[in-house]
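pinning this so it doesn't scroll away 📌
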Amino acid sequence: MSVRILALVGSLRAGSHNRQLAEAAAKHAPEGVEIELYEGLADVPFYNEDIDVEASVPEAAARLRAAAGQVDGFLLFSPEYNGTMPAVLKNAIDWLSRPYGAGAISDKPVAVVGTAFGQYGGVWAQDDARKAVGIAGGAVLEDAKLSIPGSMTRFADTHPADDSDVVAGLSGVIQQLTSQATPAAA
């Protein structure tokens, strides 16, 4: 049975280095591990309890929840926007945290990684994402970390999938994540 991981990328920018990092994770996932890059976070409306009503949840949010319900764990990729995680990533966490105590992220292992232009690689944003995921009920892997600084220069001419240090770091995180994931019965 393979382990299924859902990758949520907090950058919507075309050419996003965090998107490229997620692509590298999917490309270099070991045998028996499937990493799916979720498409559609830009379409998910901001969380509002008034629209989170059974039988009328917005379609984009329902698709996110359905995809999350089919996986064994999560790998979040967060750039740093003004010292914290992007709103699109926080919004995804909010939708996946509901219904309270039984959301699609509840009790599933979650690792947070990323890259940013600054000298610390987005650690503040990644720490905020870990905090939000933990409060949302996810099983945060606090030691599964990868923060890559200087993204604009480091990845100007090299895709993260072709950077051996990045691939090694991602491989370590994926190994930690999959060791905590329990494959769902098909």
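📌 and the second one:
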Amino acid sequence: MFNDIGALELVVLVILAVLIFGPDKLPKLIQDISGFVRKIRDFSENAKQDIRTELGPEFKDFEFEDLNPKAFIRKQLAENDDLKELKELRGSFDLRKEIGEVADAVNGREADVSVPAAVNGSAGAPDLRKRTAPPAPGDRPPFDADAT
């Protein structure tokens, strides 16, 4: 429940509680809150036991966590032996490799997939998608600064 609260946040909450309720009322408040949490836990455990007894012995291995749709689907997929081919296919598919191949094809790194220059209408123009070497310290930029 409180797995995502960091140490700094906890310190800030304690300081705020001391400032709001005062050091004399804070112990009584903590006792009241802990008693309330215990009552809620006891109520939920009693409700779970009542449901288990009402369902009968055929649901003895029933877990309430299975009511979460994600957990239920995950459990059913893990127990199903008919999905072995799907697991094998999933294991053989390398998404990073496929994305790398597509990126290489888009960037023109493979000769058989690249588009010829005459087809795209830029027969003599440089390919702006490819990186060029950085200019030397004395070189001028590729645009003409005097044209403005």
